[in-house]
TrEMBL record:
UniProt keyword annotations, A-Z: Plasmid
Taxonomic superkingdom: Bacteria
Domain Acetophenone carboxylase-like C-terminal: 519-683
Key word Nucleus present: no
Gene Ontology cellular-component annotations: cytosol
UniProt record, GO biological process: glutathione metabolic process
Domain Hydantoinase A/oxoprolinase: 206-496
Residue stretches making up the Hydantoinase/oxoprolinase N-terminal domain: 6-185
GO MF annotations, alphabetized: 5-oxoprolinase (ATP-hydrolyzing) activity
InterPro entries for the chain: ACX-like_C, ATPase_NBD, Hydant_A_N, Hydantoinase_A, Oxoprolinase-like
Natural source organism: Cupriavidus oxalaticus
Name this protein carries in UniProt: Hydantoinase/oxoprolinase family protein
Length: 710
């Protein structure tokens, strides 16, 4: 039997999302189930079995399952990882605590440094030294390695080990030999080498990355092994792939070896899907807005590609303060994450102000309206009261929402403390959430020198379309695009994303003194590895696309910009083209160039990928009247209005609808005000264009909400 079916699975904090696509049948189908945090694979198996039942698919037809998970992120945030030991160069055991030797907030006398991932008794120095040029200054003390690892394993009871020696990114020989010794003594101990997980300059970031990889590795191994067993138990014999933070997919073995690279796997899938939708819609500048049950994520997509960066801070103590987290050397989709989602809990703080998040009701006990035991009002509960959601149509009618429970909870938990009625409080929750997201987006874009008014917005996630119109109004964005199946777009992103490899080698040299033969050798090594990994992930070698780049800076600077390196033979004749590319990239980021200062290259990078799939999410279209009736909805600018409710699945390309209107589909709902015109494009996207006009007078309720949000 031909295996033509693929399934994308995204585990979120509240819901687990599914998208099934069968190329042979031209079939795309979606699903959504409450996440089972105590046993995540249970929701996966139940969702897959339901998809197969609804589509008539057999296990024998499933070619692959692509999965993304927040397990790594949660492990780091909650500090629930393994007990990790570190072997490092003698005299450098405190590099994790010394960090960059600066405070992330010099004005805060009480600012705490980010907690280290490996405690001092578990960090041991080993005599032996590699110079910055890669030559050996002092041989590795192999007996010291044996003594140290015996101490860590037998007396300190470590579960995983990180090895990070000075300058190993240039010459990893000492790290390789130390691993050989450890493996001879304790063959089952999981070992991470900094030279493999992050072969780049800067020992603090490189060693931190190795330690975080070791910290999450045993738990990720156990999770993926359990998932493979559970899938095998129901008869699945296809391939299981995992989403990377960089926006590609990889094999299960690579995911187990370098789990730190999965840190942002779920959000990355959403950004890749937004990029795909932008390309299909012909939009060159887009804000990707992904709002689920726990968080909202913003990413910029330009010319059909999401912004990418090569460093990431995990577990920040303060979301907007660089340096307050654990700096990691990773290739990730560049986005900002805000701790507000559909299940974020609203509360009154000590000085009587309404707050939303960061606490979340999750899937257990969930929002009050779910009737599953939740008692604290959430954003979803306020969505219900202001009219964004139909209590009888949630999840296509499978889950009935209770308005009475929500009103009682808001009254007792919030309204009585604020001396207000329940509806103004619900409106206040909306105002707080929208302004929180708008402020974070403005900061993210301002740091890049970007203006939101020059962008369109693609909104998705279960709560993204619900809040897209209000957010766009605050940002002065004039176009919103809601794709079909918006509530499960991250899972859709797994299916349109192709296998990819991002690799890097550290070699620092002034551009005028680069050893091009050495650079050619580095790229040859990276290309060979990339081709092998992509073959294992199901890629066709003839379709592999290779992109070279380099991290460059002016001599003496501490930070770099990424510059594309031309394909083909690398030789001194390429220096001028590379220098001009650097000047262009530097001017784009900083608005100027510096003359008469030498340029140097720090890292050499390779991105390798195969083309992704083209899938249309226009599914389950029905032949019937699109209008479902009328509903009262509150908009911040217009107050309470009567909106026409439409069944999205009954709308066809070319349809033009004037607001106010509500568009309902199984996994989400999209509302627009009177100043909006919505068109269904050829890809069945809802394209909402907002008129540029002077603000209308807000209602009394809106005024009260604004006061609450201040």
């Amino acid at each position: 039997m031909n295996k033509t079916t693929r399934i994308g699975v995204d585990i979120g904090g509240t819901f687990t999302d599914f998208v099934l696509h069968d190329e042979a049948r031209g079939l795309t189908w979606t699903g959504k189930r409450l996440t089972t945090p105590e046993a995540p694979s249970r929701a996966i198996l139940e969702g897959i079995e339901r998809l197969m039942s609804e589509t008539g698919t057999t296990l024998g037809q499933i070619h692959s399952i692509v999965h993304g998970t927040t397990l790594i992120t949660n492990t780091v945030l909650e500090r629930t990882g393994s007990r990790v030991g570190l072997l490092t160069t003698d005299g450098f055991r405190d590099v994790l605590e010394m960090g960059r030797e600066i405070r992330f907030d010099v004005d805060d006398l009480y600012a705490r440094p980010a907690p280290v991932i490996v405690q001092r008794p578990l960090r041991l120095g080993i005599p032996g030294r590699i110079r910055a040029d890669g030559s050996e200054h002092q041989p590795l003390d192999e007996e010291a390695v044996r003594i140290a690892i015996r101490e860590l394993v037998e007396r300190q009871n470590i579960e995983a080990l990180a090895i990070g020696f000075l300058h190993s990114y240039v010459n990893p020989a000492h790290e390789f030999r130390a691993r050989e010794i450890v493996s001879e003594m304790y063959p089952h101990l999981r070992v991470t080498l900094s030279a493999e997980v992050a072969p780049e300059i800067r020992e603090y970031e490189r060693i931190t990355t190795a330690c975080v990889n070791a910290y999450v590795q045993p738990r990720v191994h156990a999770y993926l092994d359990s998932l493979e067993r559970d899938l095998g138990r129901i008869g699945f014999d296809g391939q299981l792939y995992i989403m990377l933070s960089s926006g590609g997919i990889t094999t299960i073995d690579e995911a187990k070896a370098f789990p730190v690279r999965l840190l942002e796997s779920g959000p990355a899938a959403g950004a890749m899907a937004a990029a795909y939708i932008a390309r299909e819609a012909g939009e060159s500048r887009v804000i990707s807005f992904d709002m689920g049950g726990t968080t909202a994520k913003m990413c910029l997509v330009e010319d059909g590609q999401p912004h990418i960066k090569h460093e990431f801070e995990a577990g920040r103590l303060d979301k907007f303060k660089p340096g307050s987290g654990l700096p990691l050397k990773l290739t990730v989709v560049d986005m900002i994450e805000i701790s507000v989602g559909g299940c974020s809990i609203a509360s009154v703080d000590d000085i009587g102000l309404l707050k939303v998040g960061p606490r979340s009701a999750g899937s257990v006990p969930g929002p009050v309206s779910y009737g599953l035991g939740g008692t604290e009002p959430t954003v979803t509960d306020s969505d219900l009261l202001v009219g964004y959601l139909d209590p009888r149509a949630f999840l296509g009618g499978e889950m009935q929402l209770s308005v009475d429970r929500v009103e009682a909870a808001i009254l007792t938990r919030l309204a009585q403390q604020l001396d207000m009625d329940t509806r103004p409080v619900a409106i206040g929750i909306q105002a707080v959430v929208t302004e929180t997201m708008a402020a974070a987006t403005r900061v993210h874009m301002a740091e890049k020198g970007k203006d939101p008014r020059a962008y369109s917005m693609i909104a998705f996630g279960g709560a993204g379309p619900v809040h897209a119109y209000a957010l766009a109004k605050l940002l002065k964005v004039r176009r919103i695009i809601i794709p079909m199946g918006a509530g499960v777009i991250s899972a859709f992103g797994f299916l349109i994303t192709a296998p990819a490899v991002n690799d890097v080698r550290g070699y620092v040299a002034p551009l005028k003194k680069v050893d091009w033969a050495r650079v050619s050798g580095l790229y040859a090594e990276m290309e060979a590895r990339a081709v092998e990994l992509l073959r294992k992930a199901g890629g066709d070698e003839l379709e592999i696309e290779l992109t070279r780049s380099a991290d460059m800076r002016y001599l003496g600077q501490g930070f770099e910009v990424e510059v594309i390196v031309p394909n083909g033979e690398l030789a001194p004749t390429r220096e001028r083209a590379i220098s001009e590319a650097f000047s262009t990239a530097y001017a784009s980021q900083f608005g100027r160039v510096i003359n008469d200062v030498p340029v140097e290259i720090v890292n050499w990078r390779l991105s390798a990928r195969v083309p992704g799939s083209r899938i249309n999410l226009a599914y389950s279209l029905i032949e019937m009247s699109a209008e479902r009736g009328k509903r009262n909805i509150h908009f911040a600018e217009f107050g309470d209005v009567t909106a026409t409710v439409y069944d999205r699945y009954a709308l066809r390309p070319g349809a033009v609808i004037a607001g106010p209107a509500v568009f309902e589909e199984r996994e989400s709902s999209f509302s627009v005000g009177p100043d909006c015109t919505v068109t269904v494009d050829q890809n069945f996207n809802l394209v909402a264009d907002i008129e540029a006009s002077e603000p209308h007078d807000a209602s009394t309720h809106t005024t009260e909400a604004a006061v609450l949000a201040c």
